[in-house]
Amino acid sequence: MQTREKKKINTYHVAQQRIKRAVEQSGLTMDVYEWLKAPDRLVEASIPVEMDNGRIQVFTAYRAQHNNVLGPYKGGIRFHPEVDADEVKALSIWMTFKCAVAHVPFGGGKGAICCNPRQLSVNELERLSREYIQHMALVLGPEKDILAPDVNTNAQIMAWMADEYCRIKQHNDFGVITGKPLEMGGCVGRETATARGVVYTVIEAAKVKEIPLPGARVAVQGYGNVGYFSALFLEQKGCKVVAVSDSGGGAYNPNGINCRDLLLHKKLTGSVKGFPGTDNLDNLEVYAVDCDIIVPAALENQITAEVAKGINARVIAEGANGPTTPQADEILKEKDVLVVPDILANCGGVIVSYFEWVQNNYRYYWTEKEIESRLELKMTEAFDHIYNYKCSCEDNTTMREAAFLYALRRLADAMKVRGWYK
Length: 422
Ligand code: GLU
Prior knowledge:
Elements (H helix, E strand, L loop, with lengths): L1 H7 L2 H16 L3 H7 L4 E10 L5 E12 L5 E2 L2 E3 L5 H18 L5 E6 L8 H15 L8 E2 L8 H15 L20 H19 L8 E5 L3 H12 L3 E7 L2 E4 L6 H11 L9 E3 L11 E4 L8 H5 L5 E3 L8 H9 L3 E3 L1 H4 L2 H15 L5 H25 L6 H19 L5
Parallel strand pairs: 3-6, 4-5, 7-8, 7-11, 11-12, 12-13
Antiparallel strand pairs: 1-2, 2-5, 8-9, 9-10
Bound molecules: glutamic acid.
């Protein structure tokens, strides 16, 4: 049942539907939908890479540039064996809306390479990353389109990519990529920024729902960068992390799981499953445990209608992009679950990417304290904007609808004043 429902869902169509609905609700002309329904450009490349055994393997790679009315295209690049053009296009749409919600002067873009990074050696990964830039350099640039990490990519990969770009340009132009290591113009706190942002929205959502954070029970799907740090920071706020899962399975303990020890276990065994003192769960069973807050931090379309029916939590903060299907949204609305949507909950990453880009452009670097307080301010402002907007709309408007409407208005105003539609 699960697999069938998930297979039917085309993430790109979901993203388009959400824009269409927002345009209809806002009363704006359909010209706005015409502008936003598809990316400005999709670059698809076949990337030949010499493998360690001397053979050539060709990888399919993408960069979708959705809209740049508010600033250069901006968004991460992911490495995943199942990624396709429609997924990348959808993710680029969400970046446009996310940057508008976060009030950072960027548009939306997304990149991907169809590969299984676990099957590649370090040298093969480096050659693949550099080759991607060789194929995409023409459409990238600090004023054109700026990359960042996403699923299965990290600071090291950003360093290889930025270095390759600088070699092509024959000068250092670090602002072309964010999420770089500190040694080459990275920003302190970028690695933990998405999770910190998620936690700021959990704090605000918990206030709305009157859930005291100390003792609140948390479930997390995905234990990569966003899942792990979200769990850890919530644990530090006094929450009890009761269930965690990843693609290999899940771990459950109603008395709480130690987040750092769980990460060590995952590093040793490859999964959170089988952590001593916990019961085994399936990946999706984390959604059905008794808890107050859920942080989805894996891939798209995980919370289907079936999964939503089993949810007991009162708050969901979407660390992942697109984890909830539209059908599931309806069920969660009926259940009065406060869903903090991806384009708000996980915008801490792109906010600190913006700080990194500004610092690269100015060649003037801020302290960790400055970054943290600016992030906190921008996240709480973003939450307040969207929550107040929701309250000013019809009674049953969700946070997701409010976020899309709010972003849409910002985009439409900018397009109008630039003369993109009358
Ligand atoms: N990949 C992250 C996201 O989906 C970060 C994007 C960025 O920093 O540009 O929001």
